[in-house]
Specification:
heterodimer, A: 13% helix, 54% strand
Chain lengths: 293, 169
Amino acid sequence: MQPPPPRRPRGRGILAAIRVVSVLASLLFAFLLGSTILMVVPPNLEITPPSTDGIDFAYVDGVLRLDTSIALKNNGYHFGGFAITPDITNFTISVRGLVENIEVANDTSDPVDIPIGTSRLVPVSVGVRLAPLISTGYIIFEPANITFFLGGGATTTRGLLDVAASVTIGLPMEEPLISDFDLDFQNSTFSNITGGKEWRLPYTIRSADIIQGNASAALTLLNVTGGSIGNTTAEIPLGTEAMGNLTFAISDESFLDLMAGPQDLTLQVQLTLPGDLTFNREVTIPWDPSGGG
Amino acid sequence: MLRKYYPGKAVVAAIGYAVPFVILPLLFLSAFQTFLPESINIEFQVDIRTLETLIIAIGATIVVMAFMTAMFAKGLLGRAIFGSLRQAAKFAWLYFFFNAGFIAILLTIEGGQGLGPIPVQGLTLSVHFEQLLYILYFAILLMALYFVVEYAVYRRVVQEQYYVEPSYY
């Protein structure tokens, strides 16, 4: 006796439907991921960095501002006349800046949409705050390595996918903003005043032209034992090479101490920049009464 | 005539799953370590050695599950159980291989050359696609459901063929 042919079960259509939907979902995943990777591959996405001339530097109220812009063109990838790659939405550029591992900048640009076939100029504005560097003197008195993490991020494929790219940029400073603060002891003069002497001490100071205005300086001279010789204040013009005179009123006792012989003097400088940023600096200056410092 | 077990199909299925879930990923990781310069680093959820171990362990589980799934005839409970477990193993495999939906490529540039006049030291490209991965998880879930529905659909056929009239096979 032959067995009956196997019965075709009901519900096979549901099984086929489940399998088809599962395969389609897998294909959709592969397509969306692949098209997004294609989106960021040149020449589908063109990024034009700023030229050297295109970066503006300025010091404004304690913040060193860098303004520039980056051009982006979303050419897209086309297949058979259809754009495979998605539009770029909510594109932002963020910048994090570190000076010797101290965070000084953290800015993010406004979001920009870049549909396929369009180009956009994304403004980038970075504010390097000098306040966190007060205790170190970096940038103002000491050259430093500034590291910027410049990141571009966007949402694509109807919000299902976030793409981010970042570059690490190292900008070593050749010179600090304020350099070459020199006291000219050889041309210093003493004159008699009531109760002691007036010590007229020529100085020169050179500062970068991006920092403008006047700095208020409070200076104190200390002898080798740490005793105060005298103090003074001065308004120092910035953004140029400036020369001037510091005038210390010193007692007869301090004058005799200075004339006794060579010694290392200590100059304590409290410099207040526009924007009420006060930096303290202490320098040791060799002093010789026979020939100045 | 229906049979209860299919060893030939099971071997073919095991090989079919070993290629995409064990052999190709291991070749990819091997090529990745051999040919990629040291300056380029792709960030995974775990280090590469651990990832290789995970791929072998989870991939081998998938292969065994695929073997067992194909071994049983449609409508047998064994096929439904091993088929669903295979999907669970695939879920774990995808989670680790796609780094839970995050890929980061780190590129270190020596000499500070790069973006126009700007000295670039490194470049990172990262893609967050956790939400996109849900589509793949959905496909896996559907296939797990498939084996449950398949069991329900073919159970009566199996009962008729194997148990109601056992003399036929």
